[in-house]
Write a structure and sequence with these properties.
eight-stranded mixed beta sheet, 21% strand, binds zinc ion, binds tryptophan, Immunoglobulin-like, 40% helix, five-stranded mixed beta sheet, 33 strands
Length: 885
């Protein structure tokens, strides 16, 4: 039974379901501790299988109390059925279609794992992806079993005046007994159980309507805590823009009479795309100028879009099995990135998407948790909702678009929607649509889904002045990763240009090597040679334009060449990239330098000059300039080293580089800061947000000068702030330094926002990310703060998650106390919420590249976790993969 340890599930073992469930009728009587679930399933043998003879019916189910079970109306007694901790089996069900009725009980109040039905601040809600439905009733809880659901919900009128489920509302009414009422919902679209959802609670709401392209009216409603309705308008606005955009860009129209969003406070992730009833972490719904930062507004817009877009990519066309998770997630992330790019600035969006990819996915891909975008095995599927599946998955879709061009890409998407609507499909099915729509062979390209690791392109460019030609060699390598030693070369679209001495792109011709389209090279072999003619002056290469593939690029460019790209590259993404690379390289050089002062002087001057010219370039918008001013973080620099990482040394070098830049640009930064300070009324649009971002980026750099006037400027910024973007920015800055104003500002923020459970998370996070040496003790103390709650994932993420993932210096303290703290917290959280605990453990994912002392301490902390019991399947899998590699 349990003794052999958790079971590994293999993609290779996939078998289609023996039984299909055509309809489901659920009658759910909500009660805090004893919710009754009566289910009636109509079940048929899978006609596609043509199996003959008796086949047992095995349904998934866990953490429930079974009261009764009936088949075709007759009560079953053992041994006509069997139950264990995870399933219900009927050894010999009828050959003909039959109905199965069960009555089970669950306890929402005791459900701290937040999977299945649970209570969040008095609101009943549910979370089923990936395998939560089996905690509600016995079912074939797998994505390739699609059923039509009808749901009747019953609850106390006072506790839950609002009763919601998937689909369209059918009926509601009151019951005589004990002030109860009910609502019936029917979802006409067959769906897998992971998209099931219910909500019951006393909630406020905002409403709107949307007319679809074909003229159907849809009622939209967003439910929030009473009194917070005003904060739901931005989410509503984002929803309507998403609905319009999906019609215009992909021809996808909404398909029910209503679309509901509910904000809840206890939620394991960001949000969930349940059919017609999206459930959101309230952090991703609620926003007002006083309580939300521009980053919050942006996140709300993109997550509302993401969940809405799932209606077609995920719900109408779903995954055959959980190994195909990127089919819906990678594609939907790509779609929400495109939406944001078109609503805001394409370049700035690309920069932030690449920042995110590099800071979260690259380390995963280079460490013990590396897995292919389509994994081939898992123990706990919840552990695979990763940056690799989501963000690298989105990059793969983007590469398909780069390879095919916009029009053919759209044709492939159209074919996908047409061919697979209503089905549960695989990555092969998806890619086949692009192959068929374009006549392109994608077989080598498929390796992006099956091989883990970040490819590295080692490039070399030589110039023949006499012949006016150049030769670029590109060598691709892909390191071994867990479970996979030998890897095959991948198909990499390399967008590039050669810049001439005047800074303009030269009009060159590719005379050898394959060009996919103008300016995009096909890198397909281990070693690839490309020759160019028409190279009229010494070329400076602009490679991987727009980050055309999720790879690392390695080419030896001088500081002068990088500064030249920072000044001239017409690809704005690459201008930013050049600056980023320049700064990273300078900081690394400072660590190694014998005479750091001399190195610093030369490196900083050239960098400052290039930045200054961009800062005063009217053609560039403020949001973009802000990105240029943001130097790479400690973790970004650490990532460039594959071994012997010492965060304290990086911190020192980083600080001196930042300060040198700030001093060189001081007058300009002060000017920018002052010029932009005349703020009018708040608007969350991209332009206004960009203005605030630039000013805050200037403030950040100025603060690294560490003078009393610099600290006073931050304190004044806090005092004068008229919106949360500015207050929160000042809060983080002041919390990061030993300023005399620090305590006062932190206390003021606390006293002002202690009644707001979302805003106060900014206060926890600001303290958790302080690089001061007192931070760990302060974080420990904050875990005992009355406002902190270990059962609320947002709190855990704000305090412990921020400390472990956004404070590289203090988490990686040389004495290992940061590691021990995290290990202890993980064990404590694991007893309440394994999914969240396992995520926190991810903070150790790069421990192998640490310098030896830290590495040993981190390893000891991991062993401590591994040796503890009980340990959830979630944490067991993560810790084993980390230590096994
Ligand atoms: N499918 C959701 C999304 O990406 C995310 C999700 C997966 C999730 N599992 C979850 C959300 C568990 C909350 C809890 O949009
Ligand atoms: Zn998603």
């Amino acid at each position: 039974m349990e003794a052999e340890g958790p079971q590994t599930i293999l993609l290779a073992d996939y078998q289609p379901p023996e039984y299909l469930i055509e309809t489901v009728e659920l009658d759910i009587a909500l009660d805090p501790t004893r919710t009754r679930v009566a289910a009636k399933l109509s079940i048929v043998r899978n006609p596609a299988l043509k199996t003959v003879g008796k086949v047992p019916l095995k349904l998934d189910g866990e953490l429930m109390e079974l009261e009764s079970i009936a088949l075709d109306g007759r009560q079953l007694k053992k041994p006509a059925y069997r139950v264990d901790d995870t399933s219900l089996t009927i050894p010999s069900p009828p050959q003909e279609p039959f109905t199965l009725e069960t009555v089970t009980y669950v306890n929402p109040q005791a459900n701290t794992a937040l999977q299945g039905i649970y209570l969040s601040r008095g609101v009943y809600c549910s979370q089923c992806e990936a395998q939560g439905f089996r905690r509600i009733t016995y079912f074939s809880d797998r994505p390739d079993v699609l059923a039509r659901f009808t749901v009747r919900l019953e609850a106390d009128v006072d506790a839950a005046p609002v009763l919601l489920a998937n689909g369209n509302p059918v009926e509601r009414g009151t019951l005589a007994k004990r002030k109860r009422h009910y609502a019936i919902w029917h979802d006409p679209h067959p769906k897998p159980s992971y998209l099931f959802a219910i909500v019951g609670g006393d909630l406020g709401s905002v409403a709107s309507t949307f007319k679809t392209a074909s003229g159907r009216d849809v009622d939209l409603r967003i439910y929030v805590e009473h009194g917070k309705e005003e904060r739901a308008h931005w989410a509503m606005d984002s929803l309507k823009r998403s609905m319009r955009w999906d019609e215009k860009r992909f021809g996808c129209e909404y398909d029910l009479d209503v679309f509901n969003i509910v904000a809840v406070s206890d939620f394991n992730m960001g949000a969930m795309e349940n059919k017609g009833l999206n459930i959101f972490n309230d952090r991703l719904v609620l926003a007002s100028p006083e309580t939300a930062t521009d980053a919050n507004y942006e996140a709300i817009e993109s997550v509302v879009a993401h969940e809405y877009f799932h209606n077609w990519t995920g719900n109408r066309i779903t995954c055959r099995d959980w190994f195909q998770l990127c089919l819906k997630e990678g594609l939907t992330v790509f779609r929400d990135q495109e939406f944001s790019a078109e609503e805001r600035s394409r370049t700035v969006q690309r920069i932030s998407d690449v920042r995110q990819l590099k800071s979260l996915q690259f380390p995963e891909d280079g460490g013990p948790l590396a897995h292919p975008v389509r994994p081939d095995s898992y123990i706990e599927i919840n552990n695979f909702y990763t940056p690799t599946v989501y963000e690298k998955g989105a990059e793969i879709v983007r590469m398909i678009k780069t390879i095919l061009g916009d029009k053919t890409f759209r044709a492939g998407m159209d074919l996908y929607f047409e061919r697979h609507d209503g089905q549960a499909v695989t990555i092969e099915d998806f890619v086949a649509c692009f192959a068929d729509a374009s006549g392109t062979d994608f077989s080598q390209f498929m390796r992006w889904y099956t091989q883990s690791g970040t490819p590295e392109l080692v490039c070399d460019l030589t110039y023949d002045k006499r012949r006016k030609s150049a030769e670029l060699t590109v060598h691709q390598t892909l390191k071994a990763s867990p479970g996979k030693q030998k890897k095959q070369p991948q198909f990499i679209p390399l967008a590039m240009a050669l810049l001439g001495e005047n800074g303009k792109e030269m009009d060159v011709k590719v005379t050898e090597g394959r060009e996919i389209r103008d300016g995009v090279l096909a890198v397909t072999e281990r070693t690839n040679t490309f020759k160019f003619s028409g190279v009229t002056s010494r070329p400076v290469p602009s490679l991987l334009r727009g980050f055309s593939a999720p790879v690392n690029i390695n080419i030896s460019l001088s500081d002068g060449d990088l500064a030249f790209l920072m000044l001239h590259d017409s690809d704005l993404f690459n201008r930013w990239q050049a600056g980023n690379q320049y700064a990273t390289r300078s900081i690394l050089a400072l660590i190694e330098a014998k005479r750091p002062k001399a190195v610093l002087g030369a490196k900083a001057a050239k960098f400052a000059t290039a930045i200054r010219s961009a800062l005063f370039d009217d053609r560039l918008d403020d949001a973009y300039k802000a990105e240029l001013l943001k130097l790479p973080g400690i973790a970004d620099v650490a990532r460039e080293k594959s071994s012997k990482v010492d965060h304290s040394a990086i911190f020192t070098a980083h600080r001196s580089f930042s300060r040198a830049i700030a001093e060189a640009l001081k007058d300009d930064l002060v000017e920018i800061y002052d010029r932009k300070s005349r703020s009018k009324t708040f608007s969350p649009d991209a332009k206004s947000a960009g203005r605030r971002a630039l000013r805050n980026a200037a403030l950040t750099l100025l603060t690294t000068c560490d003078g009393p006037e610099d600290y006073a400027r931050v304190a004044a910024h806090y005092k004068r702030a008229s919106n949360m973007t500015d207050s929160a920015h000042a809060l983080v800055l002041i919390s990061g330094v030993d300023a005399p104003e620090r305590e006062t500002v932190l206390r003021d923020f606390h006293d002002r926002w202690k009644g707001d459970h979302l805003v106060i998370d900014l206060w926890f996070a600001a303290q958790a990310q302080s690089p001061r040496s007192e931070t760990l003790d302060e974080v420990k103390a904050l875990t005992r703060d009355p406002l902190f709650r270990l059962t609320t994932p947002n709190k855990v993420r704000a305090l412990i998650g921020t400390f472990a993932m956004a404070n590289p210096v203090q988490f990686n303290r040389p004495d290992g106390a940061g590691y021990r703290f995290l290990a202890d917290m993980v064990l404590e959280i694991d007893r309440l919420n394994p999914q969240v605990a396992a995520r926190m453990l991810g903070a150790f994912r790069s421990f192998r590249s640490l310098e030896p002392k830290r590495r040993a301490l981190a390893k000891a902390a991991l062993h401590h976790v591994a040796g503890s019991s009980p340990l959830s399947r979630d944490c067991h899998e993560i810790v084993t993969r980390m230590l096994d590699d």
